[in-house]
Write a structure and sequence with these properties.
The protein is built from 3 helices and 9 strands; from the N terminus they run αβαββββββαββ. It is an alpha+beta fold and 193 residues long. The protein has an 8-stranded antiparallel barrel with strand order 1-2-3-4-5-6-7-8.
Length: 193
């Protein structure tokens, strides 16, 4: 009995420490990475114009750059991620082989969340501006709000999916406006410490 009492007294500090660890709330690890600069992007776009019956959807490759991307622990309601980018798309009509579109945009995107603790399915929103043209319609400025989801956010690459409404600001807006679906992969080449 004395031996059992001695062992219990000996193990009491360890038991108290274990109880403290069990009762302590686990600390979350947040994604906090240094700024990324000039990350090239490759992707594919599909455009659904308002006058869909005339031309059908447009589709084609896109190329772009993410000038700046910062992932940090947001505070005071600020987004945990922000990025600034440009994209160029050459699109072809599925129904009219001679109908092509060019879409150029510059924009910014921001995360909905203030603290990112995962690398998958990160929602974001943003705004793009630039220009849009078709070979049979004059060039027009455009403004596009968008919503999206980063399917995967890694240190070296990111895959995103987003949808936007391209709003052409011209007399030909019904021919140049419509919904746009993007998927892009950004490859990180430079990170600032």
């Amino acid at each position: 009995m004395k031996m059992l009492s001695f062992l219990l007294l000996l193990l009491l500090p360890y038991w108290a420490n274990a109880q403290e660890q069990v009762n302590k709330r686990p600390q979350k690890e947040y994604l906090e990475e240094g700024p990324r600069l000039f990350a090239p992007a490759l992707g594919y776009n599909t455009f659904f114009p308002i006058q869909y019956e005339q031309t059908g959807p447009f589709h084609g490759p896109s190329f772009g750059f993410e000038f700046y991307n910062q992932t940090m622990e947001g505070g005071d309601g600020s987004p945990a991620q922000l990025a600034f980018f440009c994209q160029f798309s050459q699109l072809q009509s599925l129904e009219q082989s001679n109908s092509r579109m060019l879409l150029i945009s510059f924009g910014g995107r921001f995360s909905f969340e203030t603290q990112l603790s995962r690398r998958f399915f990160l929602p974001f929103f943003g705004l793009e501006f630039g220009g849009v043209a078709r070979n049979d319609v004059n060039w027009a400025p455009q403004l596009s709000p968008f919503l999206g989801l980063e399917i995967y956010h890694g240190r070296n690459w990111t895959w995103e999916l987003k949808g936007s409404y391209t709003n052409a600001l011209s007399a030909d807006m019904r021919q140049l406006s419509g919904g746009l679906l993007h998927t892009h992969i950004y490859i990180n080449l430079w990170e600032v410490d």
